[in-house]
From TrEMBL:
InterPro entries: Acyl-CoA_DH_CS, Acyl-CoA_Oxase/DH_mid-dom, Acyl-CoA_Oxase/DH_mid-dom_sf, AcylCo_DH-like_C, AcylCo_DH/oxidase_C, AcylCoA_DH/ox_N, AcylCoA_DH/ox_N_sf, AcylCoA_DH/oxidase_NM_dom_sf. The keyword Flavoprotein applies. GO terms for molecular function: oxidoreductase activity. Its cofactor is FAD. Gene3D superfamilies: Acyl-CoA dehydrogenase/oxidase, N-terminal domain, Butyryl-CoA Dehydrogenase, subunit A, domain 2, Butyryl-CoA Dehydrogenase, subunit A, domain 3. Belongs to the acyl-CoA dehydrogenase family. This is Acyl-CoA dehydrogenase family protein. Keywords: FAD, Flavoprotein, Oxidoreductase. Residues 219-368 form the Acyl-CoA dehydrogenase/oxidase C-terminal domain. It is an enzyme of class 1 (oxidoreductase). Its EC number is 1.-.-.-.
Length: 376
């Protein structure tokens, strides 16, 4: 952890989170069923006050939580993050009634939340959403269409759903709705994915929603989605940094004791330089994540660019670091149950979800050229 960039209380809190994850969370993950919502784990996250902290802390605190948990127990980190992603729109844009109904249960871990944005033909291009909200009288709509690759589906209790209320209006015609899982006409199917948590599809067959279900304002849902992603993208980077640090720690320990050619692996310059490169990239990614989170907390104008940079660098770095760690550990790292075998499977998805790496590069470039035009 970069002590020079964090105050002593933050450094101490991160250490406490790692100890908590080791002592209280990892055993619950080990007892859970892969591909299913681990409700005992969520309850424990709620009991420890971590879920409630999602809605009372800033972006930097969120990043520190995610990094610290991921360094010890990636599955616990993911359970925490998905609660935040699914319910942050309620916290930020919900009515008093919506907040009172769902936030206490989400914070306690007794209700599971999900963020339902992606569709079969609208992933990275979120403005191309096709799920239709057809008018059904004043302040009433019916949702028809599909969502896919939705984390926590179909086991969530409530979904933040983005649907098109105005045809052919691009990003300007999308509305965010808060839809309970038991709403008539809503069904879901699990997908068999390389993931420790459930991912599934959702089918909306004339699902009724009203003005009381709207998050924010009609036709302004794209702002709800992007505001949520601008907060969570740096923290996806923090998740990646935590995994990279776990892989680095394991590699330093392994290469320092593994015998090879009359010494240890760490005595070989080729190995030592690879470990140094892993450490260099991990620290660079960490600092960019912290900078993006701090910019968000300070209300900086360039948050989308910084968030894109943080997610891009951190997730690409984690992929490199984990892959290098596997190479330096050899075949043992591919054995089922090994830390690196788990990380190797876990590290791939963050380069895709919440905006693929290619989308992050597009965001960065678009902001750079926009700034250049403003200066002319």
């Amino acid at each position: 952890m970069s002590a020079f960039s964090l105050d002593p209380d933050q450094v101490r809190w991160c250490a406490e989170l790692r100890a908590l994850a080791e002592r209280h969370l990892r055993p619950l993950v080990d007892d859970g069923e892969p591909g299913r919502v681990n409700r005992p784990l969520l309850t424990e996250l709620g009991r420890q006050g971590l879920l409630a902290r999602l809605f009372t802390s800033g972006a930097l605190d969120l990043c520190l939580m995610r990094e610290s948990l991921a360094r010890v127990c990636a599955a616990a980190e993911t359970a925490l993050a998905l609660q935040g992603l699914g319910a942050h729109p309620v916290h930020a844009h919900g009515t008093a009634a919506q907040r009172a109904r769902w936030l206490p249960e989400v914070s306690a871990g007794t209700a599971v939340a999900a963020f339902a944005l992606t569709e079969p033909d609208a992933g990275s291009d979120a403005a191309a959403l096709a799920l239709r909200a057809a008018p059904d009288g004043p302040g009433r709509w019916r949702l028809d269409g599909d969502k896919c690759w939705i984390s926590n589906a179909p086991e969530a209790d409530v979904y933040t759903v983005f649907a098109r209320t105005t045809p052919d209006a691009g990003a300007r015609g999308v509305t965010a709705f808060l839809v309970p899982a038991d709403r008539l006409g809503l069904t879901g199917t699990p997908l068999d994915m390389l993931s420790p948590h459930p991912i599934g599809t959702l089918r909306f067959d004339a699902v009724p929603v009203t003005a009381a279900d709207v998050l924010g304002e009609p036709d302004r849902g794209f702002r709800v989605a992007m505001g949520t992603l601008n907060l969570f993208r740096p923290s996806v980077g923090a998740f990646a940094v935590g995994m990279a640090q776990a892989a680095l720690d394991a590699t330093v320990a392994h290469t320092a004791r593994r015998g090879a050619f009359g010494g240890t692996l760490s005595d070989l310059q080729a190995v030592a330089h690879q470990v140094a490169e892993m450490a260099l990239r991990t620290e660079a990614a960490r600092l960019l994540v912290y900078a993006a989170a701090t910019a968000y907390d300070e209300g900086a104008a360039d948050v989308p660019r910084r968030a894109a940079m943080a997610k891009l660098l951190a997730t690409e770095t984690a992929q490199y670091v984990v892959d290098t760690a596997v190479q330096l550990h050899g075949a043992r790292a591919l054995r089922r149950g090994h830390l690196l075998e788990h990380l190797y499977r876990e590290v791939r998805a963050p380069r895709i979800y919440e905006g693929a790496s290619e989308v992050q590069r597009d965001i960065i470039a678009r902001h750079l050229y926009a700034s250049q035009r403003e200066e002319q």
